[in-house]
Every structure is written in C-alpha cells, then in structure tokens.
Amino acid sequence: MTDAVTRIGIVGTGVISGTYLDHLAKLPGVEVVAVADLDVARAQAIADQNPGIRALPPAELYAADDVDLVVNLTIPAAHASVHQAAMEAGKHVYGEKPLAVDRAEAEPLLKYAAANNLRVGCAPDTVLGTGTQTARVAIDRGDIGVPTAATASFVTPGHELWHPAPEFYYQPGGGPVLDMGPYYVTSLVTLLGPVRRVTARAGQSQQQRKIHTGPRAGETFAVGVPTHVTGVLEHESGALTSLLMSFDVWAARLPRIEVHGTEGSLSVPDPNGFDGTVEIATATQRDWTPLPVAGGYAGAGRGVGVADMARAIRNGEPHRADGALAYHVLDVLESVLEAAAQDQPVDVASTVERPAAVPLGASPDRA
Q1: Using one digit for the tens of pLDDT, what is the confidence trace for 250-264?
Q2: Which pTM value belongs to this model?
Q3: Angle at Cα 314 formed by Cα 30 and Cα 88, nearest 5°?
Q4: Does domain 6-122 have CATH number 3.40.50.2300?
Q5: CB neighbour class for 272 (10 Å; exposed up to 12, middle 13-18, buried from 19)
C-alpha cells in the first residue's frame, strides 16, 4: 500500500466483476492490479481487456506483494473461505453480500480480522450514495418528526428470467432474503438504527425453476430456500418495519422503502441503486415533494465502499461499509428465516452503531 493508493486484487470474475472494474477505475485512491478465478480462462479474458491488470490463480493473488486488499466477488457459498484465505495471507478483504451464508461462518471472520489488525468490508455500498444518505439527513434533522414505522418491499418473478446460471440464487446464501435483503436492511439500519427482534412467515411457490436465457435455457433446477418471505423488524429505537421479499410476484406497485414519522413520511429510492429522488409528505404538505440532494457520494457506483474503506485504512479511521454492519444485517436476515421456520419471534443477538453519514460533496478519498 502506497501513501495514496490501495492496490486491489479481485477474486471472482463473473457478471458483477465488470461493474466493479468499471467503477473502481474511476475512483480515487484505489487501483486494481490483479484478478483471479477458478476458471483461469475467464480471469485471463478480464486481464486481456484491462491493460495493467494481470490474471493469477487465487492462491497467488492472496500472496502477491502488490495486493493490499482483496475484493471477493465469488458466489455466496465461497465468501467465507475466500475471505479467510485472503486474511491468512495478510490482506484486508471486502466482499459482495452477504458476508457469509450464515452467522456461524461470518463470526470467525470478524474475530480473525480483529486479532490480526485486518479490516473486513462488505457490500452493499449503495447506501453511501445520494439516495439513502439524503433520506438519512432528512430523518436526522427531524423533517418527519420521530420515525415510528417503515415499509420495505422487493418483489420479482425470479432471477432465472435474466441470469444464464441462476441456481445459486435459490440455494443457502441466496433466496430473496439473503440475495436482496442486504440492500434493504442495510438501508433500514442506516436510516433507523439496529434491529432487536423479528417475526416472519415464509413460503415457496415452486420446487423447480426453469432457466429462460443463455445456452442452458430450458433446463430446470431445484429450489432450496423460501422464495416469498414477509416479516416485521423491531428496531432498537422502537420503530417497526414491515418487510416483503419475494421471487414469486409477477408485477406489483409497491414502494421500495417508505419511512413514516410523527410529522410526516419519506419515500426512499431503490436501495439497490446509489441515487434517486427522496420525496417527503408532511402534516402540512400532504402532496409528495422532492427533496434536494443533501448527502452521499455523488455519481457513486459499485466499489465506492472499497474506496471509502481504502481511505479509512490509510488514515486509521473507521470505514462505513464494514464487517460489523454486514454481520448485523446477516444476523437480522437469518433471524427472519428462523422466525418463519419456527413460527415465533426471534431476538437478534447482535447490534451495531449506524455508520457515519456521508456529507454532501464528499469524495471517497477525503470523506
């Protein structure tokens, strides 16, 4: 690691890696120097398209002297093992969500990092954009009074309609709760604080799904997780969030996130994106009215959390998309699935501080 640049190695060169590579190339303070994948040809194809980046086997990437931080873009089932291997080689790690497939895999990662003076970061970093951060400013300055409730909804007919190899979305570590839930719950924790108790119900509309696109179109595969889950999150603040996560809905007109308070309500943009318009309605102004951007990294894309983390490591500061937040979100989501399976409320054992807000006009290399 130089004084100004953190050198990045990416493990996993699937669909999402292209987005990370595009955005990391535009961000200050970070430089991608290597990529790795179990499919050596796929990693080499990425390197061939990006001058200055070399393809390596995973073990050689972990050991490389010019890699300071490993970005883990593997499938959820491999998140924990890749994180552990990279940390054992002395590297900081940042990964796609979820942190691991369950708490039992995730907790040792954080303990190892703490014992070895290493950092763990985790997506989603979408909450660092202007959408969620503007909503946070509005809540923190009291625009809607005291927050009392929220709704959060993600519905789709299923990822097999567009993804050529969607099986992992329907196995442990996937499903609507662990695939898309991290975006929503990370945003909710950023806005309303940690969750202390959950209750839920779950269902599964199909035991088999069919791939609709790509060379394997027409193939079927087994579903191993609930595909429609609804629940209630009780925040430590007392606010209650109604949560709906589904791969079983063909069409719906549901808000992504709304937050309701004693003096008004906020409509929060899609937490799977970085920007979008925040709207407010109050007791005195009932029509929805757009709010001006008031916080967040402007023009952000996938990887801004990596740049935020890299700067924080260089400066000895906390980073925002950190392992503790990701662990709490995973704890909440796993508790939702447990509450549905057990047909009773489940207490969330972990807690976390809300990460620092991103000021208006901030840049990842100086925020």
Answers
A1: 999 887 999 999 999
A2: 0.94
A3: 85
A4: no
A5: middle
